[in-house]
């Protein structure tokens, strides 16, 4: 490890007076908005604030080497950087602080994220990619500490793919020869997270253009660095990763947060390594301060010593920049004063403009509600009480939409037994604002553009007399071969995916055919495998990344739920990562190979399609559907299906399975059994046995859990059978309960039931090992048979006498 000055190959930092004064202006404005923002929270204008004070200079230095086409993957301290590259103006900064739910005011999240969570928009209003090489790109920030790290690997990895794979040159919207660098930023305390270490290691192995900047202010809220980091220094702790004598690894540069030229030189050097040579770099920015404390949630005087507070005052980077400017003769005291005064003015004006715009956006609702309540009072028997509601609204300072609607609904309840024009107007106004607020707060969980995979039409498999039976793994292997040959954007990545073509040979022989860059082995690092996929998908590629066994998805769950699943929503449709996560599950054996944690997925992956094909022809159809669209998907293949024979369709590369469309596997009129995945075969076995005793079950494979039966076809089956069982091998109250809720509640199927509905699931514990462990842990054909028979016995006891009496 070396200090910045030892590493600099050119010490000529050429700075004009104009540039220096512009830097000082940005630093001053940034500090001012932090201070005003903090006051706004204390005045009750905003709920919470977290700011970038003390980090201004380092970020200005970083901005000088940030080019169009690059990506920032950072965290909530980065306001100065964003402002320096033009990715943020201060009015927008305040709009987000106030949670102004309008993309024209808070372009990062339209009020959906708390303040300091930035991001630019990558697509046009038709959902088509903009030219990223002409943008300063920022991935929308997540709050979870180190959550930005895994995707940083993918953002940088994409540059490697663009540089090394000539077939990708046509993707001119995304790269110019892989010259793009990913700038990842993180706080010192957050480097304690596993995600950070995993990312550093992955970068060192992969040799990709990522610059990790650690803003080291010595604290993670109140916990000092001694409790966070070995040797209290992340650059020392990571010294073994330093690249040397032709080894792989990372470059490590240290620079002080208050030293303008040292910082500029450090970033120039870092950018040369990363951009030119694709060598990852850690820039450890030390002696960082935090003038205003961690956030508005409390003051840092509670936990910082006087000595530390004095240090923070003395090493305020903005003061040091000012001194440097004066002592190097770049400007006079008067010129400096002028910059400071203007910065104050700009900050104040931006705040006022943002606040006024935010309040103006709510004012029409307040005025309308007051008018409605006035009119209601003239009509209603409850005039006095309604007048009180109106007064309450008139006297509520800075009323928000919730308060307005709440008061108007109270009036409606008072008028419940009355009729009249005013009441009618209230009802239609409530409907109108409900629709508007749905638009503001509930849209873009998934793609809402013409490019959505929901619009992909089904294409059925076709067979002829030459169609032969092949094992599931041969079918999917053939499919992946066709896919890799037709679409250079697709690559496959995961543990054992490369050389041996995955543990079940889905990619067998394909690395040899398409090269290591298309079919690639990865280390055992689920979180950054997902991150590698997310980042690459954000840059126009179509990765298929693999979680070797479904149960191990838990290692990556934080990244999947916090980052990938929320991406569209938190950017109001502005950002996307159409990643495919491939895994194999169901009917595995043993505690860590249960293959069935489906409800955990349903609970955490809204924003990702969750698909459960029962065989490999269906799986191929789902891959095609997802690849034609722009959403991410989790595709869970049936582990015990790889060896089962299926008929090979002649149009394998074209078939598409539409999302949210169940398939009826067997017709019947006595009972509907709803299931998915490997349970389809077990349920079919039970259904065939049931036929022999005169019970005709209709078996439905839902095929896709998210989205679920979009055309409400299951209720149609229940209208005929009047009985239903939901069966799977997840925990009790898991995905079987989810299916039940969808059908009974959303599809209102309870109206047609003659028997109590039933959910069949596995035992609550993880499954025991081996054939008997599986049999006594998960539902079997006998479990299904018994449950159906019991239901039929209760309904028609004469026909179906109790089996066990
Ligand atoms: C996974 C997770 N755990 C805890 C938190 C709560 N939290 C928010 S910021 C923070 C401290 C982060 O400190 P550091 O990384 O040094 O960044 P700094 O705020 O000092 O710039 C904590 C614990 C969180 N956001 N995410
Ligand atoms: Mg810190």
From TrEMBL:
Keyword check for Transcription regulation: no
Family matches, as SUPFAM superfamilies: Thiamin diphosphate-binding fold (THDP-binding), TK C-terminal domain-like
UniProt function note: E1 component of the 2-oxoglutarate dehydrogenase (OGDH) complex which catalyzes the decarboxylation of 2-oxoglutarate, the first step in the conversion of 2-oxoglutarate to succinyl-CoA and CO(2).
Organism this protein belongs to: Emticicia agri
Molecular function GO terms recorded: oxidoreductase activity, acting on the aldehyde or oxo group of donors, disulfide as acceptor
Top-level taxon of the source organism: Bacteria
UniProt xrefs under InterPro entries: DH_E1, THDP-binding, Transketo_C/PFOR_II, Transketolase-like_Pyr-bd, Transketolase_C
Annotated keywords: Oxidoreductase, Thiamine pyrophosphate
Cofactor: thiamine diphosphate
Name of the protein: Transketolase
Higher taxonomy: Bacteria, Pseudomonadati, Bacteroidota, Cytophagia, Cytophagales
Residues of the Transketolase-like pyrimidine-binding domain: 470-644
């Amino acid at each position: 490890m070396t200090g910045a000055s030892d590493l600099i190959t050119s010490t000529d930092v050429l700075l004009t007076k104009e540039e220096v004064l512009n830097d000082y202006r940005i630093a001053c404005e940034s500090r001012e908005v932090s201070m005003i923002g903090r006051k706004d929270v204390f005045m009750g204008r905003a709920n919470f604030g977290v700011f970038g004070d003390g980090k201004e200079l380092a970020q200005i230095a970083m901005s000088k080497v940030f080019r169009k086409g690059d990506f920032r993957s950072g965290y909530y301290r980065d306001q100065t950087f964003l402002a320096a590259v033009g990715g943020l103006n201060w009015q927008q900064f305040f709009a987000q602080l106030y949670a102004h739910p309008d993309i024209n005011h808070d372009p990062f999240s339209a009020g959906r994220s708390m303040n300091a969570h930035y991001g630019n928009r990558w697509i046009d209003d038709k959902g088509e990619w903009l030219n990223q090489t002409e943008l300063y790109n920022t991935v929308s920030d997540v709050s979870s500490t180190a959550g930005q790290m895994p995707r940083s690997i993918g953002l940088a990895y994409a540059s490697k793919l663009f540089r090394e794979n000539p077939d990708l040159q046509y993707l001119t919207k995304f790269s110019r020869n892989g010259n793009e660098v990913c700038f990842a930023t993180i706080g010192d305390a957050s480097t304690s997270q596993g995600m950070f270490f995993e990312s550093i290691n992955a970068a060192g192995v992969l040799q990709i253009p990522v610059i990790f900047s650690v803003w080291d202010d010595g604290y993670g809220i109140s916990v000092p660095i001694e409790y966070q980091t070995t040797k209290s220094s992340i650059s020392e702790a990571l010294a073994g990763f330093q690249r040397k004598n032709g080894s792989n690894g990372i470059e490590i540069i240290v620079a002080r947060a208050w030293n303008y030229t040292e910082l500029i030189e450090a970033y120039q050097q870092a950018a040369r390594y990363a951009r030119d040579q694709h060598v990852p770099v850690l820039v450890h920015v030390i002696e960082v301060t935090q003038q205003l404390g961690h956030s508005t949630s409390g003051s840092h005087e509670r936990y910082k010593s006087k000595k530390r507070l004095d240090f923070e005052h003395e090493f305020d980077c903005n003061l040091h920049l000012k001194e440097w400017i004066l002592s190097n003769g770049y400007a006079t005291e008067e010129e400096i004063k002028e910059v400071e005064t203007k910065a104050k003015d700009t900050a104040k004006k931006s705040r006022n403009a943002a606040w006024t715009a935010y309040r103006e956006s709510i004012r029409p609702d307040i005025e309308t509600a007051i008018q409605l309540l006035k009119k209601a009072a003239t009509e209603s028997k409850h005039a006095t009480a309604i007048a009180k509601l109106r007064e309450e609204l008139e006297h509520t300072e800075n009323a928000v939409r919730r308060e307005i609607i709440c008061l108007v609904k109270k009036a409606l309840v008072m008028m419940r037994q009355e009729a009249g024009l005013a009441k009618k107007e209230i009802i239609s106004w409530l409907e109108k604002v409900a629709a508007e607020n749905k638009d503001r707060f509930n849209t873009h969980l998934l793609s809402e553009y013409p490019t959505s995979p929901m619009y992909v039409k089904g294409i059925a498999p076709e067979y002829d007399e030459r169609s032969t039976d092949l094992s599931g793994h041969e079918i999917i292997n053939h499919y992946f071969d066709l896919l890799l040959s037709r679409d250079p954007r697709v690559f496959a990545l995961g543990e054992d995916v490369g050389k041996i073509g995955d543990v079940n040979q889905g990619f067998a022989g394909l690395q040899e055919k398409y090269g290591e860059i298309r079919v690639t082995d990865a280390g055992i690092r689920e979180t950054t495998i997902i991150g590698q996929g997310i980042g690459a998908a954000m840059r126009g590629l179509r990765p298929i990344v693999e979680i070797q066994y479904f149960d191990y998805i838990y290692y990556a769950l934080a990244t999947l739920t916090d980052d990938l699943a929320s991406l569209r929503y938190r950017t109001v449709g502005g950002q996307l990562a159409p990643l495919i996560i491939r895994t194999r599950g169901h009917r595995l054996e043993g505690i860590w190979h249960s293959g069935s944690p489906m409800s955990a997925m349903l609970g955490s992956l809204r924003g990702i399609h969750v698909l459960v094909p029962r065989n490999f022809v269906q799986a191929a159809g789902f891959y095609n559907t997802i690849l034609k669209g722009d959403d991410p998907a989790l595709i869970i293949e049936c582990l015990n299906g790889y060896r089962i024979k299926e008929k090979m369709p002649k149009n394998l590369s074209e078939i598409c399975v539409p999302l949210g469309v169940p398939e009826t596997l067997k017709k019947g009129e006595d009972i509907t059994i709803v299931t998915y995945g490997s349970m389809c075969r077990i349920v079919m076995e039970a259904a065939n046995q049931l036929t022999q005793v005169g019970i005709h079950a209709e078996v439905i494979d839902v095929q896709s859990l998210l989205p679920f039966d979009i055309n409400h076809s299951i209720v149609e089956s229940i209208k005929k059978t009047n009985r239903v069982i939901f069966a799977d091998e997840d925990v009790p109250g898991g995905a079987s309960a989810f299916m039940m809720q969808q059908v009974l509640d959303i599809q209102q199927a309870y109206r047609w039931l003659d028997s109590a509905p039933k959910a069949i699931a596995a035992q609550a514990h993880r499954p025991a090992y081996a054939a008997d462990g599986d049999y006594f842990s998960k539902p079997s054909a006998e479990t299904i048979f018994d449950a159906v028979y019991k239901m039929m016995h209760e309904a028609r006891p004469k026909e179906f006498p109790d089996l066990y009496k």
